[in-house]
Amino acid sequence: MSAVPLRNNKAAASAVRTVSVLGATGSIGDSTMDLLRASPDRYQVEALTANTNVEGLAKLAREFGARYAAVADPDRLGALKDALAGTRTECGAGESAIIEAAARPADWVMAAVSGAAGLKPALAAVDRGASVALANKECLVCAGDFFMQRAAKAGACILPADSEHNALFQALGSGNREELVRVIITASGGPFRTWAAADIEQATLAQALKHPNWSMGQKITIDSASMMNKGLEVIEASYLFALTPDEIDVLVHPQSIIHGMVEFSDRSVVAQLGAPDMRTPIAHCLGWPDRIVGPAAKLDLAKIGQLTFEEPDFGRFPGLRLAYDALRTGRGATTVFNAANEVAVAAFIGGKIRFGAIARLVEATMNDWVRSGNLAPLTSADDAIAVDHNARNKAATLLPQIALKAS
Ligand code: NAD
Ligand code: MG
User: Fold this and answer.
1) Angle of helix 119-127 relative to helix 381-404, nearest 10 degrees?
2) Which residues surround ligand 2, an ion (CB under 5 A)?
C-alpha cells in the first residue's frame, strides 16, 4: 500500500489534534504556526524545533504552550532553558533532541527542517506511523524509495506539503494509477528565467535571492534560481508517487498559479490552482482528510488576466538535466545529487564559487561517483547517510578546481 493516502481511505480527524513542527522557526514553520494560531482550540502543540534560533523557538513555545522544545545546536541548551524558565516546556539540544521531538506522540508532524539534516527526524515521525506533512524534499531525495517503503511499513501517512506535490496529491484522486499518463510540475522559472547563460554564470547572491513569486528560506530560494529546486521536485515526485522519470514533465509557468497537473488516459488534465502562498498546501495537509479555512488571498483569475507557459531550458539550467540523470541512474545517485548541491549552495553563499559553478560541482561529483562503481540500492537510513557523507566529502575535494574553472 502507498504511504500517500487516497482521500476516501482515511477516517475523519479527531477534534483536537496534537501537532509537532520540525523547523518551526523557518519559512514553512512560520506559515504552519500561522495556521495553528488561527484555530487555537483545535491543536495542541507537542514539540517545536529549530537549528540555532533559541529566541524564536522559545517565543513560539511560550505562545503555543509546547510540551517540548529542541534546538539542534548542542551548545544552546542553557540558553533555551533560560529562555523558557517558568514554563512547563521541557527542553532538549543536539541532533538526538530533534529526533526525540519527532518521536514524541503527535498525531501530525510538519517536517520542515531544511536539507538532508531533516532525514533522521522525519524517519522518527514516520516510524511511529504519524501523519507527516513533508515539506523537506531533500530528505526524500537523499533516502529515495527506502523512505517511502519505511513509511508504508509503519502505516505512516505522508502528506505532500511542497506546493507542486500537494497539487498532484489533490489531482491524482481523479483517476487510477493505470489511467495516469503523466504528471506536470510547474516552475516559476525563478529570477533568471529570461537571463542569458553568461549572465546566470555571474549572478550574485543578492540576485539569486530575489524570487519573483515566493517568499522562502535561503537554500530553496537559491535552488529555485538554479532550477535545482525543480530537479529536486522531479525526484521528489518520482519517490512520492512511484512515477518513472518519463512520467514527470516540468513546465515553466511564470505566474505560479497552476502548481501541478495530472494527465489521464482520456486526455483529461486535472490541475490545482491557487495564489502562490504556502499556507494553502500546508492547510490542505493540516486539514486532511477534511478541508479547513485557509488564509491565502482568494484567487482572482480575471485580475491576473493571463497564465503563460514555456518549455524549461535544460541548457541554461543544467541542474534540471542532472536531476533526471540522477533519477535514471538510481541506486544512490539522487543522494549524491542532493549532497553535492547542498555543498555547492553553501559554497556559493560563502562566496567560494560562482553561481554557474553550482551545477558544475554537482555534475563533477555525480560523475566521480558513477566512475567509482559504488552503485547499490539504498536499503537503510545508514546507507543513505553514508552515501550522503561520502558525496559531501567528494564535493568538498572537487570544490577548489571547480572554483578556478571558468564556464
Ligand atoms: P528555512 O531555512 O526558512 O527554515 C529551515 C528550518 O529548519 C529552520 O527552523 C531551521 O532552524 C531548521 N534547521 C535548519 N538546519 C537544521 C539542522 N541541521 N537541524 C535542525 N534544524 C535545522 O527553510 P524553509 O524555506 O522553511 O524550507 C524548509 C524545507 O521545506 C526545505 O526542505 C525546503 O526545500 C522545503 N520547502 C520550502 C518551501 C517554502 O516555501 N519555504 C516550499 C516547499 C518546500
Ligand atoms: Mg515546490
Assistant:
1) 160
2) 162-164
Q: What is the mean pLDDT of residues 11-25?
A: 84
Ligand-binding site membership of 53 (annotated): yes
Ligand 1 pocket residue status of 135, Cβ below 6 Å: yes
Q: Is the CB of 96 under 6 A from ligand 1?
A: no
Cβ 338 under 6 angstroms from ligand 1: no
55 is an annotated ligand-binding site residue: no
pLDDT for the residue 9: 47
Q: Is 165 in the pocket of ligand 1 (CB under 6 A)?
A: no
Residues paired with 50 in a beta bridge: 71
Distance CA 207, CA 109 (A): 34
Mean pLDDT of 99-127: 97
Q: What residue's CA is closest to ligand 1, atom 21?
A: 51
What digits encode the pLDDT tens for the residues 43-77? Answer: 999 999 999 999 999 999 999 999 999 999 999 99
Which pLDDT does position 4 carry in this prediction? 85
Strand partners, 250: 185
Does residue 359 register a pLDDT over 70?
yes
Is the bond preceding 289 in cis, omega lying within 30 degrees of 0? yes
- CB contact at 8 A, 241 and 171: no
Indicate the helix (H) or strand (E) that contains 98. helix 95-103
Residue 8 pLDDT greater than 50, yes or no: no
Q: Would you kindly state where each structural domain of the chain is located, as residue ranges?
A: 17-163
State which ligand 1 atom lies nearest to the alpha carbon of 95: 19
Residues 339-348: what's their mean pLDDT? 98
pTM over 0.85: yes
One of 3.40.50.10860, 3.40.50.10950, 3.30.559.10, 3.40.50.720 is the CATH number of 17-163, namely: 3.40.50.720
Strand-by-strand arrangement of the 269-273 sheet: 248-252, 180-187, 258-264, 269-273
Does residue 47's CB lie within 6 angstroms of at least one atom of ligand 1? no
Is 162 among the annotated ligand-binding positions?
A: yes
List the Cα angle 236/240/242 in 5-degree steps: 110
Dist CA 282 CA 6 (whole Å): 17
